Amino acid sequence: MYFLCFLEPSHQFLTIVSRWRSRLDGPRASHDQNKYQLRGSGEELLQMASAVERTDEHVREYLIYRGFTNTLKHLDNEMKADKEKGFRVDKIIEQLQQFVQSFDLCSLKEYWLYLDRRLFCRLEDVYKSTVNKLRTSLYRYYVINTIQRGNLEKTQEFFQKQALELQGQPEWRDWFVLPFLPSPEQNPAFLPYFSRQWADTFLVSLHNFLSVLFQCVHIL
């Protein structure tokens, strides 16, 4: 089992988090040209992810060579269920997007809760507001997807299931009317969230945050 321990946050990390806070404060965040760009040096993160991936492949090749087909099946199943995705940020983002696209709110919440227990809870209090803003954006990303794909049932389900958690949060106060608007994508208050720019900016911000986060941890 992997145990993650945080190193002392760097000044660069503080600067990056500050920038992301301003981006997540509103829908008019600057666009990052649709690319997942790593802030600072991503060499350590890429080396770690690459090493895990190479090790996985070597183990699979060995099992195939030895004819251990049952063990190989178990390994493949374990790898699919690996929530940390070998410390590959792109795979974590991909998993979150899969839950969003399949309208699997329960799994989306559970996966984010896992990341919170495994990673985010180890952050100092100064970073918690950034994590909360990312979670808020993730939920909004989910809601907007249900509307864009015409699944009003899932839109209503979200607000029913999340009512107790979200009603007391100012950033969600205006959102409970969303399922009842005839054309929410044309409403000035929600129009920016239906843009590709907002979705891309959120995904880039989440990707960059996780990337820097993994650079600030080491594996024991």
TrEMBL record:
Domain ARMC9 CTLH-like: 94-216
GO cellular component, one term: late endosome membrane
Signal peptide: none
Keyword entries, A-Z: Endosome
GO function term, MF aspect, one: phosphatidylinositol 3-kinase inhibitor activity
GO terms (BP aspect): early endosome to late endosome transport; negative regulation of phosphatidylinositol 3-kinase/protein kinase B signal transduction
One Pfam family, short name: CTLH_Armc9
Location of this chain's protein in the cell: Early endosome; Late endosome
Homology family: Belongs to the WD repeat WDR91 family.
Name of this chain's protein: ARMC9 CTLH-like domain-containing protein
